[in-house]
Design a protein that fits this description.
two-stranded antiparallel ribbon; 8 helices
């Protein structure tokens, strides 16, 4: 319950004070791809679908697949900057504020990632809100290794304390983890 209070406070403050940055990145994104906001249906808590929002980092005609299955040539130069700085994740603060996500939790997967969904379901991961960052992300474990990812998610969720919550956020902001890998 306390983590949800922090999620609401931090996402609201992030959206409020980050609005000028969000606006600037949106305008630059308009020139980069013509469509700066990316929306994609993802698997949420209790396997309920929700629409994840983030800044577009790939060309608009790129196939809707997990990042590790996408080609690096699809990433625009501005998109590369957004990914490297993790600024592409900022719009997800809206998902956090709405209660669809948490700042810390397992990254939400696509509905076509059957192996990861089965592994997470078996481990009770879907009983929790998906997150922007977490133990797997700061340790560079992504969706290309579904069993390891599900195991890491379960480990994080079974031991998640307020201290860990802040640790994963700080580590992410400080630059730990490279996010989802895109094949070169």
């Amino acid at each position: 319950m306390l983590i949800r209070v922090f999620d609401i406070c931090f996402s609201f403050l992030g959206l409020l004070f980050g609005f000028p940055i969000l606006l600037l990145l949106t305008v630059i994104g308009l020139f980069d791809t013509g469509s700066p906001i990316f929306r994609q249906e993802r698997v949420g808590r209790h396997k309920k679908p929700f629409t994840l929002v983030k800044f577009r980092t790939m060309r608009p005609d790129t196939a809707s697949v997990a990042s590790h299955l996408a080609s690096a040539v699809a990433i625009t130069p501005f998109g590369g900057f957004l990914r490297k700085t993790k600024l592409d994740e900022l719009p997800q603060l809206w998902n956090v504020l709405k209660g669809e996500m948490s700042l810390v939790g397992p990254r939400p997967c696509l509905f076509n990632q059957d192996e990861l969904i089965a592994e997470r379901e078996q481990r009770g991961v879907f009983n929790f809100r998906p997150g922007i960052t977490g133990l797997a992300q700061v340790n560079e474990i992504d969706m290309s290794t579904p069993v390891l990812l599900a195991e890491t998610d379960q480990k994080m969720l079974s031991n998640l304390s307020l201290k860990d919550y802040f640790k994963y956020i700080f580590m992410t902001v400080a630059g730990n983890g490279s996010g989802d890998r895109v094949k070169r």
